[in-house]
Amino acid sequence: MYRISIKRIRRWPALVLGLMIVAAFLAACGGGAANPPVSNVPTAAIVATPDTSTPPTAVPTVAPTAPTAPTAAPVEPTATPVAPTPVPINPDYLEFGIVGHLYYTDRDRVLQLTKNAGFDWFRQQVVWMDIEDPVKGIYGWDELDRIVEAVDRFGIKLLVNVVRSPTAYNATNGLPDDPETLANFLEQMVRRYGNKIHAYEIWNEPNLAVENGGEIVPEDVGHYVEILKAAYTRIKSLNPDALVLAAASSSSGVTNPSIALSDQEFYRLMYTYNNGEVRNYFDIQAVHPGGAANPPDTLWPDNPSYIPGCKPAPDRCWNDHETHYFRHVENVRKWMEQYGMGDKEIWITEYGWATPNNTPGYEFGNYVTPEQQAEYIRSAMLRVYDNYPFVGNMFLWNINFAVLWGEQGNPNHEQASFAILNPDWSPRLSYLRAQDTIALIKTWQGRFVAP
């Protein structure tokens, strides 16, 4: 059993809720100037199913911009210092983050709404290939500079998730062939932004073929560990206070080289590679529990949920495998303990529920109403607070993708359906429910401050 901090289980009366909602989002919901086109919209949290369908990905509607003014040429690999031993983290309280997209949008408005809702952290995906041009030896930092400055100005902590190698480092833009190339890029980031970036998640769902350059086989897991080792060592040598997260695997029961490696197999291979040496090269394990159309208190096989009206049958619709459930985080925790990683904290860096949408592969959202989405988010937050003392942070997917997809003429895209804002920036019920619940939990923790 885990030590449960009193701060994590103490509850105060719910009447405090009436004091905190009315004006919280108004300052950020007004009109704004037209925004430049969105580029490089990051991939959604894929809820992979144990079948052979290809997980869908988002297609950028505008080509990425080329690097802007040249900066320093890529650094040569430095002498590799001895990696510091990660210090176990035992959070006294649960923090809350949101996933969003701050490129080429009204980022101040996004961040004001983030702060009004009570989120402590913002997770931004950074597409490496859009910043570094190794052939020309230049970097294009301009837009990321503005993002980092804005997040810092709002007093929000920043988690960056670096993905997609430049073609010179991997022909299919998957994980880099040479781990030191990513370490070099991360060194540039740490030197440039210092303590304004608080945490680095090294890649995104590397058990998916699409994130690995088009194919994923068991041997790729060891290569990921080598990349994580190089990244961790370089970041910590420059900023020991920065947190380094091992990437979350997609919650997937699929093992097919063209689609995915099951998350269970990926975690097993990662934790056992070279006698488990990975334990020395990450601070926190990121986890992406799925949800499909299932409420957060159910879990296959002991108490699965059923989806009325779903075909082919209520018991075979995104509910007949553990990876379709939010509580799958419990299985990941079990594997961590089994392979000697039980002293590591978990951060849930993506979770959420889609509502009706038009994207193939995300039909489960058609069985979740906006009211249910809001209730599931609330229940997930309370469940983590009450039952998972090993979780220190949870990042809701997402805040503003409905705005971005609305601007592109597709407000019913699956990424938009996960959002807690409407295309016109108004709050969905899920925004208000998340705001209420965060305020309530922070009140129990003794750290709520009215916006």
Q: What is the element string, with H for helices and E for strands? A: HEHEEEHEHEHEHEHEHEHHH
Give the overall pLDDT as a whole number: 84
The radius of gyration over CA amounts to: 21 Å
Main sheet: which strands, in order across? 1-2-5-6-7-8-9-10
Poorly predicted spans: 1-27, 29-82
Major β-sheet annotation: 8 strands, parallel, barrel
Compute the number of helices: 11
The helix fraction, in percent, is 25-40%
User: What is the 3D form?
Assistant: globular
Tell me the structural class.
alpha/beta
Number of distinct beta strands: 10
Strand content: 5-15%
Q: Give the distance, in angstroms, between the N- and C-terminal Cα atoms.
A: 37 Å
Can you walk through the features of this model?
The chain is globular. It has 11 helices and 10 strands. 29% of the residues lie in helices and 11% in strands. It is an alpha/beta fold and 451 residues long. It has helices at residues 6-9, 107-117, 142-153, 179-193, 219-238, 263-272, 328-338, 370-387, 401-407, 414-418, 429-445; strands at 95-99, 121-127, 132-133, 138-139, 157-163, 199-202, 243-246, 284-287, 345-351, 391-397. The strands form 2 sheets. It has an 8-stranded parallel β-barrel, surrounded by 4 helices. A two-stranded antiparallel ribbon has the order 3-4. Helix 4 (179-193) packs parallel to helix 5 (219-238).
